[in-house]
Amino acid sequence: MGILDGFEKGLERLVTGAFSKTFKSELQPIEISAAIKSEMDSNASFVARDRILVPNSFTAYLSPADFTRMRALGETLILELNDQVARHAARQKFQFGGALGIKVAEDGSLNVGQVRIASTTADVQVEWTPALDVAGTRYVLTKSQTTVGRDASADIQVNDNSLSRKHFEILWDGKRGGVRDLGSTNGTKLNGRAVNEAGIEADAVISAGQTEFVFRVLAKSVTNE
User: In which band, very low, low, confident or very high, does the pLDDT at 6 lie, cut at 50, 70 and 90?
Assistant: First the structure.
């Protein structure tokens, strides 16, 4: 573990431990993510020189008030938590004993701002959900065809005068993604190459008008209990 990793871990303990008891502030999603990462780090097990196993199923217990707020965020919260925790595991070279699964639950013994994490290795089913990142905003894609353009009639409207009204669309069949130009004036590029229609992989960059869009594939997990 590097110096910065150790510093981040100490900061996470501060935020999710005594700090939350002193200041009765509402819990934020980033604090849940930090608490899960800390739980993962604490339960890492070396089984070989190049293999570090960690739990794959995490439950974040929140106060009733915080749980109500977080539940209102719906699926978006879980997708973001899965994404952040998976990236942390990759950076630390951790391996899961199964697919990653995260859920939130209510604990009446906790005060506002507190979070308690329970972890285990469990059988988890995973569904993949596509998303599009643009200018710091993430759009979770819930349709098999999602149009993007400058007009309000597009599913995702972007304020870019170089875009056509409906410039391109993202295709999703539940497992695989694609991008299709919709006869735009200025064309659509995928990873710098002009395309009319093409398959698309996670983290690919779509360029249209003056805007770049990053295609993401996020894990939506369900623990079998």
Answer: very low
| Residue 206 structure tokens | 């779509």
Q: Please, what is the average pLDDT of the chain?
A: 85
Task: Residue 12: name the closest of 71, 88, 72 by CA.
Answer: 88
Q: What is the pTM of this model?
A: 0.62
